[in-house]
Task: inverse folding
């Protein structure tokens, strides 16, 4: 069974610090991973995608993928109060239906001013 | 601007009634999805469609149905609403299968009394 696991939090980080969000997955067949951000009462929106081992940087966000350890992470540098949200990790499985996406339950991040 | 809209945004109904949630997208995407989101469960896939006249069951399809008569719309019907179907429902669409990039509607909060 394909599972994506996240710590539900809340994860509390002071403003300006680095927020580190982690995700593990059970199926080595996963090809790619995605991070969605969801503000309270709003819909999820895609913020990062990563397709190969290593790091991918986009502004203040860095996604990291380690397929050997089945581990994905999202780093947010210079955290801002506007980063407070729930972050959903999703894995894409080749050959899977419905776009092949399996979502984790999300980590609630709180940036403290 | 292209968008995806859901209606109604909020609905209260009684057990046993039939309910239909509408989803309309102007992205001209072939792929459309319905998810429900509950505390402790994250996003769970209900039904999905890869094109007109195509529908598929997801992880939690019991008690729900969809139909796809055109590209723009994928209505979700609860045949006989149950209290266990109280949830927030998200419709999403995507252009290419397997990209992991979903565009979500604003969500519909359904309460079944």
Result:
């Amino acid at each position: 069974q394909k599972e994506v696991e996240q710590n539900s939090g809340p994860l509390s980080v002071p403003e300006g610090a680095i927020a580190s969000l982690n995700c593990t997955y059970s199926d080595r067949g996963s090809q790619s991973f995605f991070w969605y951000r969801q503000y309270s009462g709003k819909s999820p929106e895609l913020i990062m995608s990563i397709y190969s081992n290593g790091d991918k940087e986009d502004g203040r966000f860095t996604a990291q993928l380690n397929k050997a350890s089945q581990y994905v992470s999202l780093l947010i540098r210079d955290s801002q109060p506007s980063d407070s949200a729930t972050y959903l990790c999703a894995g894409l499985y080749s050959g899977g239906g419905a776009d092949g996406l399996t979502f984790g339950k999300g980590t609630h991040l709180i940036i403290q001013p | 601007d292209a968008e995806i809209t859901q209606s109604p945004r909020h609905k209260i109904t009684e057990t046993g009634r039939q309910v239909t949630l509408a989803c309309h997208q102007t992205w001209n995407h072939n792929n459309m999805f319905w998810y429900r989101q509950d505390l402790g469960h994250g996003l769970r896939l209900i039904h999905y469609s890869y094109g007109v006249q195509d529908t598929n069951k997801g992880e939690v399809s019991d008690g729900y149905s969809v139909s796809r008569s055109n590209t723009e719309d994928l209505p979700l019907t609860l045949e006989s609403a149950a209290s266990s179907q109280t949830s927030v429902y998200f419709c999403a669409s995507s252009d290419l299968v397997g990209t992991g990039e979903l565009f979500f509607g604003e969500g519909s909060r359904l309460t079944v009394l």
Chain A touches chain B at residues 32-34, 42-46, 49, 88, 90, 92, 94, 97-101, 103-106 (CB under 8 Å). The radius of gyration of chain A is 13 Å. Chain A has a mean pLDDT of 91. The CA atoms of residues 9 and 21 of chain A lie 10 Å apart.
